[in-house]
Design goal:
Blueprint lengths: L5 H7 L1 H10 L2 H18 L2 H4 L1 H5 L6 H10 L4 H8 E3 L5 E3 L21 H5 L7 H4 L1 H10 L1 H14 L1
Helix pairs in contact: 1-10, 2-10, 3-11, 6-7, 10-11
Length: about 160
């Protein structure tokens, strides 16, 4: 079960998470991720949260832009002009937060065609969790599933 103040705990545990991700038993953690991911999402309903969509933007890669523009019956250039901007890394991201495709009930208006970053987020069942430490640390303060997986990994390392 998720603690009521999980966001605060996630901030307090940043150093422990970083140490775990950088120095922990990588193979053991990779083997545990699918199970821990499923365990976390058995207890967390993304539609009740949507913090990712409210606080972050995925990268919109060219195949994403092409697919989404087609579904929205727009030209790719119009999709970019109306909804996206280039970030400091040269990636297309949403112009606004929350995501312009997030509906009031926390569903996604382009769910079936959403960007690959959205499909994979929060990366709790793949090696990105271990490889991109800064991203994982940030996600732990936004996504309760990331927090839950990292907490369980800490427990298993003891």
């Amino acid at each position: 079960m998720l603690p009521a103040k999980w966001e605060l705990l996630a901030k307090e545990h940043q150093k422990a998470y970083k140490r775990l991700l950088e120095k922990g038993n990588r193979n053991k953690m990779l083997n545990e991720l699918p199970r821990l991911h499923d365990e976390a999402f058995a207890n967390i309903d993304c539609l009740e949260c949507a913090r990712c969509c409210k606080n972050h933007s995925p990268r919109f890669k060219q195949p994403d832009i092409k697919r989404i523009a087609k579904v929205l019956h727009m030209k790719e250039g119009d999709l970019v002009a109306n909804y996206l901007k280039l970030d400091s890394d040269g990636d297309y991201v949403t112009r606004t937060s929350p995501c312009p495709f997030l509906a009031e009930d926390n569903t996604c208006n382009i769910y079936e065609d959403r960007p690959s970053d959205c499909r994979r987020y929060p990366y709790t069942d793949e090696d990105v969790l271990l490889k991109r430490v800064q991203l994982t640390l940030k996600n732990a303060t936004v996504c309760p599933a990331t927090f839950a997986v990292l907490e369980r990994l800490l427990e298993l390392e003891k």
